[in-house]
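## Example pair
The file below holds two records. Each record gives the amino-acid sequence first, followed by its structure token line.
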Amino acid sequence: MFLFSLEGFSPAALSCYGASWNRTEAIDALAARGTAWDRTITPVADPVEQLSRWLASASFPAEQMTVVTDDERLGELPIADRIGELIVIPTRADGVALTWEETNLASLAAIAAEQLPDNPHVWMHSRFLTKCWDAPRDLFPVDQLDEEDLEPMDPSESIEHELNSVGDVRSTVPPILDETQPPSLLFDRSDDPDWIMAWMRTYGCQIRLVDAVTELMCSVAEASGQSAMVLAGASGFALGQNRAVGHRAGPLRSCHVHVPMISSVLGADASEVLPGAGIRDRRVSSADSLPDVIAAMIKDSKTSPISPEVWAARDDERQDDAPSDVREARSDNSPSVVTSNAGVNVAITTANWFYVRDGAQAQGERHDGAEQCEPDFSRGSHGLGHLFLKPDDLNDVNDVARLRHDVTEELEEKLVSQQTAHE
């Protein structure tokens, strides 16, 4: 088993998760011959805490695991003693690499590749997406993009032509950025939206590096006799949602807790028919299920971890022809994933809704360095939280809490009751 996980890993930049502005062909192929979870949610906002939860699971083969990482915090966890062997590779901050083979992630992959032939389970975990964006910028085809954007058009129909009298309106924002320091930014409405797109392309470039390394590691793992691979995220990344760009930047929203998870068989014959290949699980699931997925793949790598009874079942939530009373009965907000931050329940994701408490931040400190007060969650639920329809409102654009006080109250009560039970 080979596990590849990343901090700050956004499914919004993966083409197999619907990204139209970025291509990830190797990851797409992984999903095509395996199982992809569309709505995996982290139960904690802190990725280090998520790593700890994985290691603490009885299903996670930590004792037989060789871990190769650039995250020194993993070795500082109290539960890290469970790890069979831990190899920490420091991150070099040498600027943008000339080739992807010279990047920090490629160096990490080279060490992990050496471990694959002699170890039953290898885990490669990286935080380069939140620490050092050193991927070569030519991985993202900016020149080709510019040619498409600058196609000739009738000057009389051009907005630029109409506004020439007040000056040049062409954007001065570069299409892609050379900064290696990942951003943590909140944009005003007056800011040029091209800046968000420039940061998205720069992040997409890093994801294309992940795609290249995924293809390499699949090949090496298969040649080393590994039977399965799992690709997962420990936390998400804001790419313009609510005008925030960065890891744990801005208010806590779906983008911070929604992560990719894909499992796939390695070494299968091209002509072999694999049960459950290409399955998409659209149910809400917790990232805590990763150890169980790994255990299932170790037991039988050629069968999807999701049983046919589950992935072949009809989605009741999509039965639009059902009577209204039946549809209402089905909207019981179950299954669901509660997300906590600093030990406080702050959000809940259900099949139909994402509810987040007012004042909940993706991280525990303000971007301006000032000390942040603990949000007051003791008030009435009306006006307290934000409610977004799922999965339709993918980027949490339309807050409908004012229209569905009943759902807001129900989900707020669920957060409170689970917090009380935990304490």
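Second record, same layout:
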Amino acid sequence: MSNTAQSSAAKRIEALLDENSFVEIGKSVTARSTDFNLTEDKTPSDGVITGYGLIDDNLVYVYSQDASVLGGTIGEMHAKKICRLYDFAMKMGAPVIGLIDCAGVRLQESTDALNAFGELYRKMSLASGVIPQISAVLGQCGGGLAVAAGLSDFVFMDGKAGKLFVNAPNALAGNKTEDTACAAFQSEHTGLVDFVGTPDEIFAQIRALVSMLPANNSDEAPLSDVADDLNRECTDIAGAAADPAVALSQISDGGVFCEVKAAEAKEMVTGFIKLNGTTVGAVANRTAAYDADGKQTAEFKPVLTAKGCEKAASFVNFCDAYDIPVLTLTNAEGFLADKHNEYRIGKAAAALVTAFASATTPKVNVIVGNAYGSGFTIMNSQALGADVTFAWDSAKVGTMDAKLAAGIMYDGSDAATINEKAAEYEKKQNSVDAAASRGYIDTIIRPEDTRKMAIGAFEMLYTKREDLPARKHATV
């Protein structure tokens, strides 16, 4: 490659991997097609560097596209190099990381290039759930390559230089002002992007993520050394229940919390924590968001939304594929009632139900607030297969708010009767004690004991084995 090419594609790899660990594969490969004067254009490495290296001594396979070679477009040999990388990764059981900077399909190669795209899609589809796949959009990622990003487990995006789109913004009917290819749109609205930042921030985040994930679906996630007290009390966690990003940091070893899709459906929090050195996936309902100074920046209704359910279902499916234990913090009072949400909430809620019910990885649920109606059932309830269910002593579990229930049951009665029956309903049907007496909660705990109890539960579940009915896959 030229020195310019080396400074873009190759140096990205150098910035990502452990020093001097990268070994290139297929350096001498160039374009095979000769149509439309391609022989007059030099295509060193056919516009993509492929090879393997280490992240914190963990084996990873990496490809890095170079926009200075025919715009980084994907042609026959370009895709073959990436597909061969996938063959290595599948045999060795190691993650694949793509550093994307590509103008799309190579027009000069026509059906050869289209077939190459299809072969790449198939490799990525077959690798899904077998090895982690990470994409970093550092430049253009348009057209068919956006589908490849969608096939990845995690997508990082340069907040300034990154452009991610299936159809370019100016090709969308009626769109005159919105940049649908920018990082904000792709992270907040489509949910395709998990993390946004500068290239240096992206490389640091990828390294942190790789250090938390299993190399493949047969390995366990890397164990971390634990300096944190396993019996540490989370003294301030009750006040942080509204924002799980804060609460989960308090529960986790050393305050580690790697949030996934933080910008999308903020009322549902997903991410990874560490408990006794083990990686645990976390799913939680959010009713408020706070900044680093403790100032509230947003408020959310304690309800399930379509986007939130889809986000959580996808995350639970990933955790289950790699046997990563799942912890839920439940604080939900049913579904958001508005027309826009109604378009998709039935199907989205069904997807979350299926994800929890089908997951055979260890599952622990902690009810930290109100767990009413379907919100209680859908959020990893015992009925859906939660192995252990805890509830804070301040939590409430039932069909709905006691006063609303009394108003329905005793419609037309005076206020005194409604209040009397509401108090009775609260005690008999909505209290955490009532739910525990029926066996729907295993243990009522103090909020400050959450870390200790969660660690103990996952340790007990370490050797969990569960067989589900034989099938190819669910259809939801």
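Notes on the second record: The CA atoms of residues 76 and 397 lie 58 Å apart. The longest helix spans residues 110-127.
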